[in-house]
Write a structure and sequence with these properties.
78% helix; transmembrane; globular; membrane
Length: 140
C-alpha cells in the first residue's frame, strides 16, 4: 500500500471521530468558542510536530504565491469550520457530516478546472454516487 493511501485512511478514521467528539463538546457552549478551543489545540499540536521535525527551516523555500495560497486555504478552512460547528450545534451529526463530506464534489470540480486533473467516467460516477448517497442520508 502506498503511504498516501494509509495517510488518507488514518485521516478518514480521525475525521469521523472528530464530528462525534465535537457534538458532545458543543453541548453547553457556543460553537465559535468550541471551535476556538479545538483550533488552539490543533495549532499547538501541529507546531510541536513541525518543531520536532525541524520543518520551520523550510520556510525559506516558500514562495509568495505558495504563502498566499496557504493563507487563502486557511481562510476557507476557517469559514468552513465556523459554519460546520454552527450546524453541528443544532443539527444531527449524521446529517451535518454527510452534507459536509459532500464537499468532495467541490474539490473534484476545482481539481478539474484549476489543477487540470483528468475527468474520467470513474470519477464522474463516484462523484454522482457521493451526491446520491448524501441525498439518501439526509432525506427526511
Amino acid at each position: 500500500m502506498q503511504p498516501w493511501i494509509l495517510y488518507a485512511i488514518i485521516s478518514m478514521i480521525f475525521a469521523g471521530l472528530t464530528s462525534v467528539l465535537a457534538k458532545y463538546g458543543l453541548q453547553n457552549i457556543h460553537p465559535d468558542l468550541a471551535l476556538g478551543i479545538r483550533t488552539s489545540i490543533i495549532f499547538i499540536l501541529v507546531a510541536a510536530v513541525n518543531l520536532a521535525g525541524a520543518r520551520f527551516k523550510e520556510l525559506s523555500n516558500l514562495t509568495w504565491l505558495q504563502a498566499g495560497l496557504l493563507v487563502a486555504s486557511g481562510i476557507t478552512t476557517t469559514v468552513s469550520w465556523i459554519f460546520y460547528y454552527r450546524a453541528m450545534k443544532d443539527g444531527l451529526v449524521s446529517y451535518v457530516a454527510a452534507i459536509d463530506k459532500a464537499s468532495i464534489l467541490i474539490t473534484l470540480l476545482f481539481s478539474f478546472v484549476l489543477l487540470k486533473e483528468p475527468v474520467t467516467p470513474k470519477i464522474l460516477l463516484g462523484g454522482f454516487l457521493i451526491f446520491a448517497g448524501m441525498i439518501v442520508l439526509i432525506w427526511k
